[in-house]
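Usage

Read records sequentially. Each one opens with the input sequence:
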Amino acid sequence: MTPLSIRPAVAADVAAITRIYAHAVEHGTATFEIEPPDEAEMARRLHALQQNGYPYLVAERAGSIAGYAYAGAYRARPAYHWSVEDSIYVAPDMQRQRVGSQLLACLIEAAESRGFRQMIAVIGDSAQTPSIAVHERAGFAHVGTFQSIGFKHGRWLDTVLMQRALGSGAALPPA
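and closes with the structure output:
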């Protein structure tokens, strides 16, 4: 198998990112969006995250984007500044090949290097056991479940909340 390389996302990746996300929106429950955004919107989101100092990564295998991950603000209020929420999406043909695990490991490292102290996973649907397992293996703890909080694909969906300390976590005040 061709090795996976993980690097910061660039504008040229937006078309592949948009395709991967559109599939997740249309067929999955990882996101609660109902209509997939177009390339212009996905480019705007990428730029906004990077402009605000958040990591946005892509995994590439044999010249194709296998998946992507980013960290963004957990909440907008200033006291939340040191906490980020992770998002990971893997191309359908690349799932169950450790792409998500490798992206998450690199995302954690990138967030720590930027001084963030907590990472929150907001996993759409408690039936997303592969995503839950990826986060558990990366050191995330289950902190709660919102039951039947979203309605998509004709059914009610839970949201699983998981959390992991980054760097020194809450042991020291932020620098």
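Summary fields computed downstream for this record:
- The mean pLDDT is 96.
- The longest strand covers residues 141-152.
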